[in-house]
């Protein structure tokens, strides 16, 4: 146990002893984390905006002509029971005809107003998931008393396509940045290994096991990853709030406050930072662990 504690202390000590390279590693990892986090947050905000547009895109369901008030109420109740329906609002034909009041000649309006109103009563509905638009429309048309629907399936499909495209692009960016992060971190740690090859050579020369040599460096990578995650979360907060404030000064859009996601972002950053740091150290040491003490120094 004391030996294990010694190795942990050595990992922390080496961070300070090699602080220049440690700072370089932290800067690289912070940059990668911030870029990856920013790409994901931008994607989430775009998807949220697309979803909000979809939810304000209401569909009109027309009731069959001659339906009584009681029948209209039952139709509304049946619509509310359907899956994927978030709201159902009655839209009487009197309100519908009044929308044409200013666009119709007065004589024509008076002729079609009241009992001569040719428009049907209707319900205005909103859906939760536009990808299920066609299935929902089919279910609505099967409701007894429904005459027709103002079908906007093309718009629904376009909004769904945009949302899916944003998700795919976001995933590609996150994967690409993660791979780049691993590559840069591995090379940064490999540079650190080279600058400390004399230290590794001594440990190998006195018979240290691979695990004994590796553990301090893995601990060092994990600590650097943890520190990078904390700093990265703070940097992302400043950048995100600044960018969103600038965007909202030109265009008013609904954005996700960083305070709503900072715990998730911080948690993901810590896990990613620690794993990348440990994995980068583990991979970078394989070359030296296969050599003997003198071989590491090139003697």
UniProtKB/TrEMBL annotation:
Residues in coiled coil: none
Positions of transmembrane segments: 165-190, 211-239, 261-283
Source organism superkingdom: Bacteria
A Pfam family this chain is assigned to: FtsX
Gene3D superfamilies for this protein: 3.30.70.3040
Subcellular location, principal: membrane
Bilayer topology annotation: Multi-pass membrane protein
Ranges for domain FtsX extracellular: 58-149
ABC3 transporter permease C-terminal domain boundaries: 172-292
Subcellular location, record wording: Cell membrane
Alphabetic keyword roster: Cell cycle, Cell division, Cell membrane, Membrane, Transmembrane, Transmembrane helix
Family under the similarity heading: Belongs to the ABC-4 integral membrane protein family. FtsX subfamily.
Its biological purpose: Part of the ABC transporter FtsEX involved in asymmetric cellular division facilitating the initiation of sporulation.
Name by which UniProt lists this protein: Cell division protein FtsX
Lineage, top ranks: Bacteria, Bacillati, Bacillota, Clostridia, Eubacteriales
């Amino acid at each position: 146990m004391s030996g294990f504690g010694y190795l942990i202390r050595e990992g922390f000590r080496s961070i300070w002893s090699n602080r220049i390279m440690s700072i370089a590693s932290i800067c690289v990892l912070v940059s990668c984390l911030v870029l990856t986090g920013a790409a994901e947050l931008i994607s989430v905000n775009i998807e949220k905006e697309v979803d909000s547009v979809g939810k304000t895109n209401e569909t009109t369901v027309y009731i069959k002509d001659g339906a009584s008030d009681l029948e209209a109420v039952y139709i509304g109740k049946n619509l509310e029971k359907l899956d994927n329906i978030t709201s159902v609002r009655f839209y009487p034909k009197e309100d519908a005809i009044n929308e044409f009041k200013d666009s119709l000649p007065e004589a024509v309006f008076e002729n079609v107003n009241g009992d001569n109103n040719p428009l049907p009563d209707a319900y205005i509905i909103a859906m939760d998931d536009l990808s299920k638009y066609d299935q929902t429309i089919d279910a609505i048309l099967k409701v007894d008393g429904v005459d027709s629907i103002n079908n906007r399936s093309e718009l629904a499909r376009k909004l769904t396509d945009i949302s899916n495209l944003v998700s795919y692009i976001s995933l590609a960016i996150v994967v690409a940045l993660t791979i780049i992060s691993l590559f840069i971190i591995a090379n940064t740690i490999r540079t650190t290994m080279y600058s400390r090859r004399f230290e590794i050579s001594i440990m190998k020369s006195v018979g240290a096991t691979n695990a004994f040599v590796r553990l301090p460096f893995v601990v060092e990578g994990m600590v650097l990853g943890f520190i990078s995650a904390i700093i990265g979360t703070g940097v992302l907060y400043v950048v995100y709030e600044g960018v969103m404030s600038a965007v909202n000064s030109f265009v008013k859009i609904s954005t996700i406050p960083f305070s709503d996601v900072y715990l998730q972002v911080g948690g993901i950053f810590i896990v990613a930072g620690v794993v990348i740091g440990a994995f980068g150290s583990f991979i970078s040491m394989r070359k030296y662990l296969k050599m003997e003490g003198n071989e590491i120094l090139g003697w």
